[in-house]
Each structure stands twice: as structure tokens, then as C-alpha cells.
Amino acid sequence: MRENLFELEPEFPASFTGGTETEAENGSGMPLAARLRPRSLDEYVGQRHLLEPGRLLRRAIDADRFSSIILSGPPGTGKTSLAEVIARMTDSEFIRLSGVTSSVADVRREIAAAVKRRRSSGRRTILFIDEIHRFSRSQQDSLLPDVENGNVRLIGATTHNPHFYVVGALLSRSLVFRLEPLSQEEICTLLNRATGDERSFPGRKVELEPQAADFLATACEGDARRALNALEVAALTTDPDDAGVTRVTLAEAEASIQQKMIVYGDDGHYDTASAFIKSMRGSDPDAAVYYLAKMLHAGEDIRFIARRLTIFAAEDVGNADPRALELCTAAMQAVEMIGLPEAKLILAQATTYCATAPKSNASYAALEAAATDVEQERVQPIPVRLRDAHYAGAKAEGIGKDYLYPHDYPGGFVPQEYLSVDKRYYEPKEIGYEARIRERVDYWRALRDFVREEKRDGKA
């Protein structure tokens, strides 16, 4: 159902019309983060990469030229606040729905009201759908005709990657922007502003020590809402001094916030795992261990980490150090048997080994090149000498004839063709153990090339 914005948002009545806020809207019963929502872009903190003059989103707002906007980003980065500021700047009616509780009927009702409003007063309507990723595909599809016809201007907010959770047809009609976690300096700006804004603590004077502000800005991990909520708890649970001033010190700040949480979720899962792999590939054990610690702190499945290490050992270390795969396979088994917390030590050993091992993706590259030929070119026939000869009649058909058994020759090698065409897929690198492999492969290939030339010249 449609949320009551008078109860939820201090700056907006049930539908925002651009007027000034009333005393009722500044009620101290509202959470501090809600009371301090910015009323203009001048008050908005963060997201300079989107809102600096000349940026696409800023141009779209200033020109009042957009039909649909999708805002994605972690919690507390200002998605709802930005939507409300856009409504003020474009003098639009602001209707807020929730992707969790709203239905298609709620959407249709608000769109019908928007059409009627536009015809009677000329006012346009911004339909803000929070957590739009919670809408099913059919619910999202129901928005398409009215977004395309301009009956409403949609602003959707999501903490997930919209390219995974928002239907393509809606994305193609939208400007898509990602909001980033606020920096420590930006969080400190908000916290210090909160202590001086009359909307923050009516009837109470609050001072925030710099050390306390720095602590909250660090602990909140770029989440402005979490920082402001912690400040509010600290201020409301601290007695004023003799001068009537509530002084929030580092001790009060530390007591007002729970264990430090990190932004993870679906995007954090994939992004951190990607950074973990790329750090090992780049032979940086310090960065790799940091991302391992982050994943463990966030509660990542240790079996997932072990599987990624084992895959990495084959894909990125390869034959430059064949022991990496052995170690990671053993680590994967040990993690399954031992579990946390000791499994962290096993993962750390495997991570640092892989990060510092010589790297070669030659095996992976060979497979990719061969797979491309299999998929895109005519599949090469298997030479008759290599085909299975263990059945009645194979000998009469000449199957297996002329096959040279390598173990019958010195060194266990004899030059003969195993492919119908002369193709090279595996190119060992001059690194680690693979350098020794390259010596053997080059020697064998030279012998095959020599025999091939001899046959071509009729000498063999």
C-alpha cells in the first residue's frame, strides 16, 4: 500500500507539493536521519560523481528532462533523499510506494491519480518505488506503458545490482545511476551539521567531539543513516552537563553503536570475491588476505572461498606450480572437515600460497582456444590410428593400424600425428615449473616438425 509520508518523512506531507515544512513535520519523534533529509542539492552530501555541474544526472535534474531513473547503492547512501530533492527541484508531486508492501493495484491507483492531477492542474508526478527489486517481473512490466507515455516519472531505488533485478525493458527506458558509500569526511560533515541544525534535537544543545565523529564515520562504513542513528542514541542517552550541553565523547559514541558491520549483500559478495581473485592473480598476498578477512567477517560461506581457491589454482597458477592445486584441494577438504574458526587458518595458508606462487594461465588459454575451434570450425576427424580398436572387425577396417606405442621407444616418445591438422593450443610459459614443461614440449614439437618435413619431402 502507499506509505503515509507525513508519518515517515518530516519534510513531506502525504504527497509533497513543494511547500515549506510545518512545525508538525519537524517533530522530534522522527528518527534523526529522517528529520535531517536534505531540502535542496546544496544540503545534499555525497555523490559528487553524479551531482556535480555538468554530470548527466545533474543535467537531467536541472533541465527537468527525464522519464525514469533507477538509483542503486548500499543502504544509507541517500537514494530516498535524492529522490525527494529531485521532486522539490522539479516542482513535482511525490508519491512513495514500497516494493515490499505495494501491489499492482496500488501502482495503478497512484498512476490514475497522477493522470487526473496532470489534467486538472498540470502538475507532474514522481512515483518513487523503494526496493524496486522486490517487485516481480510482472509488477515491473506493469509500469512500462505509463513510464513510456509520461503519465508518471519513475524513480526506483534498490540496494541490488539493477542489471540483475530490474527487467531489461524498464532499464532501457531509464537513466541508471549507482550511489557510492559516503566517505569518512562526508559522514563527518553530516554529523557536525546535525549538531547545529534546529531540526536535530529540539530543546537540546548537542556537541560532538571530533574523535567521536571520526569513530562514527569509520564504524558506519559509509552508511549515513547508521551514523546519524548512532549519534541520536548517544545524544539521547547522555545527560547534559551543568551548562545544559549534551557532550558526545568517544566513549558515548563507542557505546552507541553495535559491532562494526560491513556493506556486503549480493553486490558485496561478487565484488569482494572478484577483488580476492584479482589480488591473488596480481601476486599481492596483502590485498588477498585483506579481502579474505572481509569475506570471513561478513559471514561468507567458507566452502565458497575454498572452491574459488581451488579453481584459481588450476586457472591462474596452473603448471607453473602444480602443487597449488594439490594444496587447495587439500584445503577444501580440510575446511569441510574442520569448520570455523580454525578453517580460517587453512584458507589463509592457501590464499598466501596462491598469491605468491608463479602464475600461468596457459592451460586455461589452451582449453579456450581449443573450445573455440570445436564450436566455430568443422570438427576434425580422429586419425584412424588413434581410434578404438577393441571390437570385432576393427582390424579388418584398418582401425589402429600404424599406431606407434610410445613406451616401445627411447624416452617414451615417438613422433606421430595426433590431430588431423597442425594446431598448437598449449603454450607453456617461461615461469616456475612450467618453464621445464616448455623445454620438453618444444623438444617434442621439434621432432614432430622434423618428421612432418621428412614426409613432405618424401624421405620418410
**Average of pLDDT:** 85
Order of helices and strands: HHHHEHEHEHHEHHEHEHHEHHHHHHHH
The number of distinct β-strands equals 7
Distance between the termini: 85 Å
* Binned strand content: 5-15%
Number of helices: 21
The neighbouring-strand order within the major sheet is: 2-3-4-1-5
List keywords for this structure.
460 residues; alpha/beta; five-stranded parallel sheet; two-stranded parallel ribbon; 21 helices; 49% helix; disordered N terminus
Account of the 3D structure:
The protein is an alpha/beta fold and 460 residues long. Helix content is 49%, strand content 8%. The chain is built from 21 helices and 7 strands. The protein has helices at 5-8, 32-35, 48-51, 56-63, 79-89, 104-121, 137-141, 144-149, 162-165, 168-172, 184-196, 210-219, 224-236, 250-255, 265-281, 285-297, 302-317, 323-338, 343-356, 362-376, 434-456, and strands at residues 68-72, 93-98, 125-130, 153-158, 175-178, 205-208, 245-248. Helix 6 links the parallel strand 2 and strand 3. The longest helix is centred in the C-terminal third of the chain and has 23 residues, at 434-456.
